Amino acid sequence: MATTNPVPRFPDGFLWGVSTSAHQIEGAVDEREPSVWDVFTAEPGRVRDGSTAEVACDHVRRHGEDVALLAGLGVDAYRFSLSWPRVRARGGLDFYDRLVDDLCAAGVRPVPTLFHWDLPAGLDWRERDTAERFAAYVSEVVARLGDRVTKWITLNEPAEHTLLGHALGIHAPGLKLLFDALPVAHHQLLAHGLAVRALRAGGADDIGIANSHGPTWPASREPADVEAADFYDLLLNRLFADPLLLGRYPDGIDALMPGDVTADLEVISEPLDWYGINYYAPTRVGAPQGTEIDFGGVRMPAELPFSVREITDRPVTDFGWPVVPEALTEILTAFRDRYGDRLPPVVVTENGCSYEGLDDRERIAYLDGHLRALHRALEAGVDVRGYFVWSLLDNFEWAEGYARRFGLVHVDFDTLKRTPKASYAWYRELLREQRA
Ligand code: FCB
Fold first, then answer.
1. 350 is an active site residue
2. Ligand 1 geometric centre to CA of 20 (Å)
3. Residue tagged active-site, from 26, 31, 33, 157
4. Whole domain around residue 110: which residue ranges?
5. What are the pLDDT digits (tens) for 22-43?
6. Which atom, in ligand 1's list, is nearest to the CA of 160?
7. What is the pLDDT of residues 75-115, one digit of tens each?
8. What's the gap in Å between 4 CA and the centre of ligand 1?
9. Residues 6+ apart with CB under 8 A from 145
10. Parallel, antiparallel or unpaired: strands 293-295 and 298-300
11. Which residue from 107, 325, 390, 405 puts its CA 20 to 30 A from 351's CA?
12. Quick one: which atom of ligand 1 is closest to the CA of 398?
């Protein structure tokens, strides 16, 4: 499909990729230990369509087909995650060993994420020693795969895992701790820092994290709305970026963390080779409204010091998320302005949208718009080195089950047949044009 107005050229060496995560695609649950997500989805009412990830895309058995889809797409890199519960099972690293071999043979660079929310059941991020156990697991992984894997991601979106999983109870493990969930954030950040050390000890020199960030727009200029939006920005953006990049928590947050965190912050701020940003949409935030609100299926309790408001003047995806490409430029330039030379090169580790259908023109428009916005960030001087579409395949979208389709490739969840969508052909063509 020739594009009439091609996406501007990205620099040579720019890393083009696509992302998935273990729990969302792998299936083969009998070959691994259970995770908090298995426990959670077994509870009635937790997942919108009552589904589980027991089979998902059956990727463990069909990974040959999926590697062929990646090679056909022509991406430089594939971001996937390792299931810690699978690695803990007997022979657990064997699958990833084969997958990495297959990817290398197909000319696709493996970029594993070491934790994408599927904590082994029985472990708990409220406990500090989960961070130490994570580091031990990471050491085992790097010892086995480090001869072929050269680019690593420690954690995926500790912000969402804390907020949705531990503060609001919408994701596994289903805890509703509100602000008492802050130690969960700290222990994940500590796990990240310890993992960076373990990876370095194993010889790795290309390490990042995938954090979700996005602009927070105040609902109005009223001071109460601006203050609420600032606070939301602190929770989504600064709480997870300040400790990593500046070695400190935002003012007032230290006191809410477990004990004296000074020494931990040294570990957390171990220098990174690059910083991954997952971007989907901005958030509009106003003063608390005193009532529980339903925000895209997320029930926000009344006692929060802010309320999330709808963005009404934009098209929305099937998930109800507003489509605002320029907010990607905004968050990237805001990060550059906020963190200056403390910000390493940036990689967009996730960006995508959920739409139905094989002739997914809305997805093409979404990706096209966001790549132009990304290019504007480059022109504005942000050092962006790569872009990963979420996702290669339609998959198990957490509490939404199979109802949200983010893939460049359609998956029929009855037959598990893969069918590339129009967006797959579009992305393949874009990559060809970029390299021509
Ligand atoms: C991100 C998650 C990813 C996927 C997308 C839609 O927050 O990292 O697993 O669910 O959203």
1. yes
2. 9
3. 157
4. 15-435
5. 999 999 999 999 999 999 999 9
6. 7
7. 999 999 999 999 999 888 999 999 999 999 999 999 999 99
8. 31
9. 93, 96, 97, 100, 110, 112
10. antiparallel
11. 107
12. 10
Residue 9 lies in a domain: no
User: Can you give the pLDDT at residue 255?
Assistant: 82
Please report which confidence band the pLDDT of residue 293 belongs to, taking 50, 70 and 90 as the band edges. Answer: low
The angle that helices 422-435 and 361-379 make with each other, rounded to 10 degrees, is 30
Closest residue to atom 5 of ligand 1, CA basis = 390
Pocket residue to mutate for ligand 1, from 349, 350, 391, most atoms within 8 A of Cβ: 350
* Residue whose tokens read 């935030």: 285
Q: Whose CA is nearest to atom 4 of ligand 1?
A: 397
**Pocket around ligand 1 at a 6 A CB cut-off:** 21, 24, 156-157, 160, 212, 278, 350, 390, 397-398, 406
Q: Is residue 319 part of a domain?
A: yes
Q: Give domain status of residue 102, yes or no.
A: yes
pLDDT of residue 2: 44
Note whether residue 7 is domain-resident.
no
Q: Contact at 8 Å (CB) between 209 and 159?
A: no
CATH code, 206: 3.20.20.80
* Residue 433 appears among annotated catalytic residues: no
Tell me which residue of 309, 406, 293 sits closest to 350, measured CA to CA: 406
| Amino acid occupying residue 19 | S
| Ligand 1 center to 263 CA (angstroms) | 31
The Cα–Cα gap between 56 and 26 comes to 6
